[in-house]
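User: Can you help me understand a structure? I only have the sequence.
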Amino acid sequence: MHITREADYAVRIVICLSAAGRRMDAGSISEQTDVTLRFALKILRKLVSQGIVRSFKGTQGGYELERPPEAITLREVVETVEGTYYLNRCLNPDNGCERAGTCKVQKVFCNISRMVREELQKVTFDQLIPGRYDPQKGKQT
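Assistant: Let's start by predicting it. Here is the structure, written out as tokens:
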């Protein structure tokens, strides 16, 4: 089980903007994150629409974080491109499962999904910037 490539790239893009701490053009973001420009632009549009990234037009245009890195969670970014995290599609209310409410496996999957969402919510992008000091580890990350 894994997150999609799009979610992985979205995380890379937000880490890149967090580390830069300034406005960046899409080409530089693409280059620094190893994401094709076309795919980076698609992801950036989603991040802009959810208020994670701000875009600027014109010769001085580009992208920057809408909020400080410590105010953006890993869950928020992953769910921007993937939707709400569910371990199994049977948990998604849009899919409708005929065994909903009676399936013991579904209850276990529901608890695991909740735990994953809670863990993703605990991680903010200031914690993911390379070279930042991690007080829990007592060293640079």
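Now, to help you interpret it: The first helix runs from residue 5 to 20. The CA atoms of residues 23 and 85 lie 30 Å apart. Let me know which part you'd like to focus on.
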